[in-house]
Please model this.
Amino acid sequence: MNDPIQALRDAGYHVVTDRPVSKRLNAFVKLTMMQQEYYRDPLIVRLLSNAQLRKGNALTADQLIRAVKPGENSERFIKAATAISKAIFQRGYSLECPDCGMVDWYPLYDMIINSSGAPLYHFVCRGFTHPFPLPINAQIEYKLNPLVSEAVKDGGLTLLNALVYLNQEVHPSERFQDKFIAVEVKNRHLHTDIDLIRFHKNGGYYVECKDNFNTTDEAIAELQRTIETGLMLANTLGYQYVFATLQEEVPPTIQQQLDAANARLLTAHDLLKPYDEQ
Ligand SMILES: [Zn+2]
Model:
């Protein structure tokens, strides 16, 4: 079976592959894939899971380090964060305009040289529309690139790491072949999302991704229904069902359900690894 989307359609499902969430996650995977080893690092996962950053707030380097608490691994953390900083961060300053006193976020632009040969930074107050110089005590701050912050909320870190892990099991010549991300599947009786379909010559993986768990009875029951539907669709495709999470374990009822169905479980033990041990 070569095209899983066509196979689902042939089985009577309505399948949507190009929703905004799918585009975001595809772009996120492309952005991060070339530096995938850094995103497996638990300290980088902690950085990208930071609530302040996810909210779009700007933090100084000291604040970032304090939030991640790398302890004795701070050298490793700084190395890894520096390596991916161009992809994940926007740099800038929170500055108070000397004319009108308003504080605003100013992205870091390249320094420009004006016509008389003087170097200038291009900070123009949005209230007063007047340029002003960079104060000598200004501290550079980092904000998550909006694509990264949205994709992380969509579960992008688990998705990326599950994909990287499963790619190791696929023949190298097939590693850059098609995959489908955040596919919506429905018919009159069923409506579900498939986080990742990764297919290869001899079959494929149907992957459900969960960053973490809400353990209320209601949430667990809903997750069980999602898994039940997923197992059925994976069976329709003839693919292996994989449940991936960045947690160290899954709730016992979920574990039992996966075991009973002979499904595969990938946890933080499989997916995460400090990058200096890779
Ligand atoms: Zn101003």
